[in-house]
Design goal:
- The protein has 8 helices and 7 strands, in the order E-H-E-H-E-H-E-H-E-H-E-H-H-H-E.
- Helix 1 crosses helix 8, helix 3 runs parallel beside helix 4 and helix 4 packs parallel to helix 5.
- It has a single domain, classed as Rossmann fold (3-Layer(aba) Sandwich).
- Helices cover about 50% and strands about 15% of the residues.
- It is globular, with a radius of gyration of 17 Å.
- It is an alpha/beta fold and about 250 residues long.
Length: about 250
Amino acid sequence: MRLKDKVAIVTGSGRGIGEGIVLRFAEEGAKLVVNDVNEADANAVVNRVKAAGGQAVAVLGSVAERPVVQQMVDTAVKEFGTLDIIVNNAGITRDSILHKMTDEQWDPVIAVNLKGVYYGIQCAARVMREKGYGKIINISSTSALGNVGQLNYSASKAGVIGMTKTAAKELGAKGVNVNAIAPGMIWTDMMKNMPPETLKQMDMMLPFIVPMNRKGSPQDIANLALFLASDESSFITGQVIFCDGGMKM
């Protein structure tokens, strides 16, 4: 098992990409702290891990609140003895064209997607620095390169890349790897909830914008996260890996 007895936190892991990462890590022997704002979703993922013979606990709340993130780290140490891995995955969208965007659309996206990652990096790093080992994986997006109607989301995900590289430079000598994954079109509830006409247009354009001619799955991201969380990636840090079927090559 590639993560046997490793302890991992995955934020925003009640469904979608986060859920996929939790389940993949559990398959490889990790002990998990599952986080989500939705209690039913978080508990359902914990129960799936336990039903498969794994170990997991839930910590509810938004990563935009520092005490919630600190509670995740404290819970990992209290329940499982340490913290080896954190995947800062939690994210939201509040899409709007630039000239129509409101502060009510801007502020929560920056709070969750950017400040939440900052809290995750900082709180986890304080444990990882002391033990001389750690894996920090931040979920960015291809939208970090700019996407119409997503000024707030793009800004937050571009910021994640900057934080990833800075943290990698600061923490490398302490034995902590910090990397980012930039997913492309991943078939999750976030995408499924788009307007039907938008999805129809997306499917029509798929062969022209994604060379591999398919949407990604949470499993695609989970497999990459597993590699970055494992010791197989011990000499990789400060990198942003696009997992997008070639969309942004």
